[in-house]
Amino acid sequence: SNDLSTSELAQKYFYDYYPDEQMPIFTNPCNDKILMNLWNGNRSLCLVFPQFLIVGPQKTGTTALYSMLSQHPDLHPSKKNSITFEELQFFSNDTIYYNGINWYLSQFDSDNMDLNRSINFEKSATYFDSILAMKRIKALLPNIRLIIILTEPGTRAYSRYQHEIARTNQTIKFDDLLQLNGNQSSNEFHLRQRCLQPGHYAEYLLQWLSYFSSKQIYIIDGDAFRRDPRVILNDIQISFIQLENPLNSSELVRYNKKKGFFCPVSNNKRFQCLGKSKGRYYENMSSYARKFLNNYYLLHNRKICLNTIQLTKRFLSLSKISHTAEG
Ligand code: A3P
Fold first, then answer.
1. Which of 9, 37, 115, 131 has its CA at a distance of 20 to 30 angstroms from the CA of residue 187?
2. What is the dihedral of CA 115, 249, 212, 195, to 10 degrees?
């Protein structure tokens, strides 16, 4: 191997021996003196990294939680952009990830903030079912706290379906979508997967647990959160994020009759209800779809209780999810 040129050596290394390493993965320079010098970063930038992430999955109430927490003066979400709106999707999207650490940090406010007291955070619902995202988050933010919202997975799948139907020109009926099989390349089959796959909760929770300790993960019962988020908002502020100045959740949210949901309220007490695409009106799913989904998720839901017991202590209504599936 002494006879190999540098580029031949690189070929061997990345293609024959360590193909996993072809893609760069960013580690945190703040935890390493040598990296810190190479990075040319300023120590105070280390405080700009987010301290918690809302990781999804999609259609479980992630935008509501994100907006409600954003009302707290010490909690600062990442900046919005025109493509993915309130989501950065840094860890789950290759193109965005390769913008690098400085780009990631530039997505958070650092001016006019008391960095010792303020906490940056972001929400990207695409992280939940991305193994690559888990790996990248672990490398850059090993001590991060993670919030996951779970709702009954059949309802989540249907909400996702409604979301796609409303914003694209697809017209397939939900019952027909569920019955599709095989043709992996069709758009419709792809849509079916996007509706069903993230609801394999146990599978993904186990993956998260292989990267992070259960203490780093807070699971929310999304169905309870949707009905009334107040107790959950208090608990997150006090016991999970451990804010110095938690606000009583009645200062963050109030029920809005017209919207039919609790809405975030700004500090001048104005309602900041979510847009029309959150809390859509649509018909109930058919009894065929309900049965199909109960059956589809039955084993997945059972595995949540069996395999992720460290997490489920906090998530009391999981048994409710599995009963729904059996019933
Ligand atoms: P539907 O529009 O299907 O009812 P996400 O933001 O993760 O994509 O989730 C969207 C879902 O959040 C909505 O799905 C809605 O049911 C739920 N949700 C929970 N609390 C809400 C709130 N306070 N306001 C609006 N939608 C809320």
1. 131
2. -120
In a domain, 26, yes or no: no
> CA–CA separation, 17 vs 110, rounded Å?
41
> Domain containing 51 — which CATH number?
3.40.50.300
Ligand 1 centroid – CA 196 distance (Å): 17
Cβ-Cβ contacts under 8 Å for 113 (sequence gap 6 or more): 76
Provide mean pLDDT across the span 30-50: 88
Measured in angstroms, how far is the CA atom of residue 59 from the centroid of ligand 1? 6
Residue 217 and residue 208: Cα distance in Å, rounded? Answer: 9
Residue 39 has pLDDT above 60, yes or no: yes
Q: Residue 70 above 70 pLDDT?
A: yes
**Catalytic option among 59, 259, 278, 320:** 59
Pairing of strands 52-56, 261-264: unpaired
Higher pLDDT, 112 or 194: 194
Position 30 in a domain: no
Over pLDDT 90: what percentage of the chain?
76
Residue 282: give the domain boundaries.
Answer: 40-326
Q: Atom 16 of ligand 1 has which residue's CA nearest to it?
A: 279
Residues with CB under 6 A from ligand 1: 58-64, 125, 159, 162, 226, 261-262, 274, 278-280
